[in-house]
Amino acid sequence: MSPVAVSVVLPAYDEQRTLSATVETTLDTLGSFLPDDSFELLVAEDGCTDDTPEIAARLAREDERVRHVHSDERLGRGGALTRAFRAARGETLAYFDTDLATDMGHLEELITSVRSGEYDVATGSRLLAASDAERPANRDVPSRVYNGLVRLFLRSSVHDHQCGFKAFDRAVLDDLLTDVEDDHWFWDTELLVRAQRAGYRVREFPVDWTPKGDTKVDFVRDVLGMGSGVLRTWWQLAVAPRITRRVTLVAGTLLTLFAVALMPQYIDISRMLAEIKTADPALVIAAALVYVLSWPLRGGRYRDILDELGYTEGLGFLTGAVFISQTGNLVFPARAGDAVRAYVVKTRRRVPYPTGFASLAVERVFDLLTITLLAGVVLIGLAGTGITSLSGLGATVAGGNQSGRVALLVASGVGVAAIVLVGAIVASARSDRNLVRRGMEKVSSDAYADRVAGVIERFVGDVQAVAGDRGAFARIGASSVVIWTLDVVTALLVFAAFDVALPLTTLVAVGFFAVSVGNLAKVLPLSPGGLGLYEGAFSLLVVGLTPVATPIALGAAIVDHAVKNVVTVVGGLGAMLVLNVSLTTAVEEGSEVEATPTDD
After folding, report:
1. pLDDT single digits (tens) 560-594
2. What does the alpha-carbon distance between residue 24 and residue 57 come to, in Å, rounded to a whole number?
3. How far apart are CA 165 and CA 158, in angstroms?
4. N or C: which terminus of the chain has fewer CB atoms within 10 Å of its end residue's CB?
5. 0.70 exceeded by the pTM?
6. How does strand 39-45 pair with strand 6-12?
7. 100: left (phi over 0), alpha (psi -120 to 50) or beta
8. The Cα angle at residue 443 between residues 442 and 447, in degrees rounded to 5
9. With contact defined as beta carbons under 8 Å apart, do 339 and 356 qualify?
């Protein structure tokens, strides 16, 4: 037999009624312009639930030009095509939908466009001026909107990305498939977009197209899934390459400088600085010492978490690892220090990266829950006991500074998200069903959504592993409460250093609430170390709940945050010297594996 020049793939999912006729028509059409021994037809049968596999197997037995590529499980349209193309033997590869909605009179033009060497990729189009496509509005309008978004966000020159009538040069397709991540409907779009970005020659030509039966696209789940594919590809191609360490450092610095520049618009800077100078240094030093006490507790909590995940390490080493990672979060934006801890425990104690990231995620859950719990309990106490009035808070939020309002909104969102997250984990733990994956499948069925579901499943599993041991859960929970209580006590001592005229009960209640909300506000990586967010939320709440003036409240927040940051940096530098860790190297190495935390 002569070498196969052209391979045509038919993606087939539950096509028992049309498959035989489609194969016959395809073979006849190919034979009209190609020698019989120069092409092959592959039926990419994709985990069908009807008799399609048996029909495909029979057709392959009856004609040696037909091959059956079987899959027991559903791979998705893109996944089935990828698998079949990798099994194909031709140098020119093509596929079209099994319903033959595109007029087969265009097949020779499709194949020749690529086989001639003039183009690397060819695709039919239902949306060009010369196209003849009869589509109902409920299919035409969403398609035009989708293609418009792809052209806008992904800078594509193609008008119709989803027409199931395409051909590729084999070497080009092999190159593109190394980067294509989707395995369902967005597969076509991603291929065309990446082909254009790579500089390949793409031809789009008009076709005659007539709908045949109902579409297999779910206009809720699959359209949302394709939308997530657009966003993911836009991020990968347009945004991610520009987010270098230098860019993030510059952006974070500019945001901080902008926030500082706006401060004189809302507060009396000279008075604030004067208030800071009057702060009692003995109480500020006492606050620093109290904060130092929380760090061995942080190391002990991290030791308990790692122990539940199967790794036992020393308290001193783990306290140092926490110090280094938190220092990284202060120095670098986007919480880059989080990846540092996984790097440190991997390189110094051979704790695998998956465990390092999982332990960090578990720690974050306990932190968020504890802070939210403290804020919620104190808020209820404030409202119920009348220690101080909540009525002033609304007016302060309405008329307060922009950074404070943003911080309060961020804190509220993070607190609600923490509660919802734990509720989902508990529900998943008590159910035999995979609630995470079932929920994701209702929203989207593309590969990116499947990957996200896998990450969430792993994260939930790690949290449940810790929560499954009641003793460990109690120890970690109790240590979290003590850690954040010491954090609040540190702030209260700083606040007291400003000699505010408040009753002790009011000082303690408002301090707990303001510090808890301030820490919730800085969870999102909007600035290095949460600079500005913590101070904004803290001062906004203190001014809204007490008679304390804004310069005093903001001055106390700045000193409190500065004390904690100084202790963190000093401890981090000491730990880096003892453990011989370069923070820059740790950030770079840790960031590289953060995107793929399953690698050892």
Report:
1. 888 888 898 889 888 888 888 776 665 555 555 54
2. 14
3. 14
4. N
5. no
6. parallel
7. left
8. 105
9. no
